[in-house]
Design a protein that fits this description.
With about 250 residues, the chain is an alpha+beta fold. The protein is built from four helices and twelve strands; from the N terminus they run H-H-H-H-E-E-E-E-E-E-E-E-E-E-E-E. It folds into three domains: about 50 residues; about 35 residues; about 150 residues, Thrombin, subunit H, CATH 2.40.10.340. The strands form two sheets. It has a six-stranded antiparallel β-barrel with strand order 1-2-5-4-3-12.
């Protein structure tokens, strides 16, 4: 009797309706037992024709060589920079070398913070030099840090001299990377390309420190002639400075 019932179920079509679900449940059980390994292997097998060939491998090797060369160039530049810092310190042992540790994003051309303070001998009002020349003055000091007011800050005022003409002026920041000289004479005789240094008459900074080069002169400015100055020291790229003793 049971054999006849089984034959009737098979002939009636029940078994063809059940066996796909049996296969699905079996597959799910195998995937669970293998923790997805079967799916990964199947994907790898199906995607093998699309794997990178020799052209892609050569492209990857080329990219890796370029990355290695870029890293080497960066290391060489950093090494040269550090050698320059050490050289400056040896040439001027009384100066205080300090790293730039912070900039104010809202006042990029106004101030920066250096990692030396009163414990290292930094004093308020001291002149600060970067590679190229004068960059600013110390405006405030803590035991371990100091804030530098840059020559480009609108509050900055420094007496300067054009050595070629021996005419004096006042270097004033205007909040951009190029400050202005306001000359004391009506006819300063300055032209584009003239070098600018700190004035011997200045009481704020030592004399004859490099400041920059005149880019443009406006003789008709009121109340006195003006000149735009390209600073010799770049505030944007400076990461080490030297503080002069005061």
């Amino acid at each position: 009797m049971p054999a006849r019932r089984w034959l009737r179920l098979s002939n009636g079509g029940l078994l063809p309706q059940v066996w796909p679900w049996v296969l699905v449940l079996t597959a799910l059980g195998l995937i669970r037992l293998s923790k997805g390994a079967l799916v990964s292997d199947a994907y790898a097998l199906l995607s093998r024709p699309f794997w990178p060939g020799t052209a892609q491998a050569e492209w990857l090797r080329s990219a890796r060589r370029f990355e290695d060369q870029a890293r080497l160039s960066v290391l060489e530049a950093e090494n040269a920079r550090l050698r320059g810092v050490v050289g400056l310190q040896r040439a001027h042992p009384t100066r205080i070398s300090a790293p730039v540790i912070s900039r104010d994003p809202a006042g990029w051309w106004q101030t920066l913070l250096i990692g030396r303070g009163s414990l290292n001998g930094v004093r308020e009002g001291a002149a600060v030099l970067a590679p190229g020349g004068l960059i600013g003055l110390i405006s405030s000091v803590t035991p371990t840090t100091a804030r530098v007011t840059l020559l480009t800050d609108p509050s900055s005022r420094v007496g300067v001299l054009v050595p070629r003409t021996r005419h004096h002026g006042l270097l004033s920041g205007i909040g951009t990377d190029r400050p202005l000289i306001r000359f004391l004479e009506k006819d300063p005789g300055a032209v584009a390309g003239d070098v600018v240094t700190t004035s011997p008459a200045s009481t704020l900074v030592p004399p004859d420190l490099p400041v920059g080069v005149i880019q443009k002169v406006d003789i008709g400015a009121d109340p006195a002639p003006e000149a735009v100055v390209q600073l010799a020291a770049s505030a944007a790229s400076t990461d080490w400075v030297q503080v002069l003793p005061r």
